[in-house]
Write a structure and sequence with these properties.
By secondary structure, the protein is of the alpha+beta class. The chain has 2 domains: 130 residues, no CATH class; 157 residues, Nucleotidyltransferase, domain 5, CATH 3.30.420. The chain is 38% helix and 21% strand. It is built from 9 helices and 17 strands. A 5-stranded mixed sheet has the order 11-10-9-12-13. The chain has a 3-stranded antiparallel sheet with strand order 1-7-8.
Length: 357
């Protein structure tokens, strides 16, 4: 329901309404735009906006009503489907609609590929992000078949944290580079300069663009690091076992068990991004990924199974039962690995693993 209490039209009704609008003289300019692009806005974006509003209203009755897009709040991206474009010599040719009975000329956009194209290009997303135009090409590829359980030989358990981004059962640890901390002083200085400028002026826009470039640099460095870690983990192993962490709930303000510093570091550690990269790289290589319950993986001894309730915030795990001394994150990753083996019902056969008979 909208503000007047009227029921909103569904996707099919809005699509028909769009067709009728294009026939009116006031909205004749809509014919210049590719029909697929306009239909995507109506069928997906408008529909999703209403679905998100209704879902949020159930949780929070005072949820903000969906607002109309204005000149200052336009969409920062649009889609072009397969029938509306061609790719040739690192140039994108995409067609427009018709204007007064004549086809509009094709738009030519030169671009540079960061990765080689694999498969058949399907949908292209052209977006404006932080003063830069980016091209995202979605391709249809054939995934290799997943290796059978009987061929799983190398298994790795991964523990994700704040101080150490990554630790595995073999002792490989990668400490948090804290890229955001390195730009913090410069970021705060630019914020102070920005607060003294007249909003909307040329100098204000220059400082704003510099802030965006600074944030984009830190974000890209973290993304690149997660790509390298996930690629190395998939290339060396057949099964990757991770903790099932609800990072959104853990880092929310409603969680009073953690401090503000820990909450901020959780967000900046990009746990979800690393897990997403591992999952899609594993699918592309025909490997396995498994998520397990993280309950007491840090406090449990990976050698004898005894729980150390006095661990606290110590970096080194010391078992009072068998005397094992080990880095707490490496100990947790070993427990995560064992949980993954038990969950998939794998059985040890010498140095390899095979499916039980």
């Amino acid at each position: 329901m909208d503000k007047q209490g009227l029921k909103q039209p569904n996707r099919e009704q809005q699509a028909k309404e769009l067709t009728n609008l294009k026939k009116q003289k006031e909205y004749e300019w809509l014919n210049k735009i590719c029909a697929w692009t306009l239909q995507e806005v109506v069928r997906n974006r408008v529909s999703n906006a209403w679905k998100k509003y209704e879902a949020r209203k159930e949780i929070y009755p005072k949820a903000g009503y969906p607002r109309e897009k204005t000149d200052k709040g336009w969409h920062d991206s649009f889609l072009v489907y397969q029938d509306g474009y061609q790719i040739k010599d690192n140039c994108l040719f995409f067609s427009q609609g018709q204007w007064r009975g004549k086809n509009e000329p094709k738009i030519i956009i030169p671009f540079e590929l960061t990765n080689p194209l694999k498969g058949t290009p399907k949908i292209i997303t052209i977006s404006w992000k932080k003063s830069n135009w980016t091209l995202n090409i979605a391709c249809d590829i054939e995934l290799p078949p997943q290796i059978p359980k009987s061929e799983i030989k190398k298994i790795i358990g991964i523990d994700r944290g704040v101080r150490k981004l990554f630790a595995n059962n073999e002792g490989w640890k990668y400490y948090n580079p804290k890229y955001w901390k390195k730009i913090r002083e410069k970021y705060m200085e630019l914020q102070r300069i920005l607060s003294k400028k007249v909003k909307g002026s040329n100098n204000w826009r220059k400082i704003k663009d510099e802030l965006r470039r600074l944030c984009r640099k830190a974000k890209n460095r973290m993304r690149d690091q997660n790509h390298k870690i996930s690629r190395k983990a998939i290339n060396r192993n057949d099964l990757v076992v991770l903790e099932k962490l609800n990072s959104k709930k853990m880092s929310s303000k409603e969680n009073k068990k953690i401090s503000k510093w820990t909450r901020d570091e959780m967000i900046k550690s990009c746990w979800y991004q690393l897990a997403t990269f591992i999952i899609y790289k594993a699918k592309g290589a025909g490997k396995w990924t498994e998520f397990v319950n993280p309950y007491q993986t840090s406090k449990k001894c990976s050698q004898c199974g005894k729980i150390n309730k006095e661990l606290g915030d110590k970096e080194i795990f010391e078992c009072l039962n068998c005397g094992l001394v080990l880095d707490r994150d490496v100990n947790a990753s070993r427990n995560i690995r064992e949980k993954g083996i038990r969950k998939l019902k794998l059985q040890r056969l010498g140095t390899s693993l095979a499916e039980p008979v």
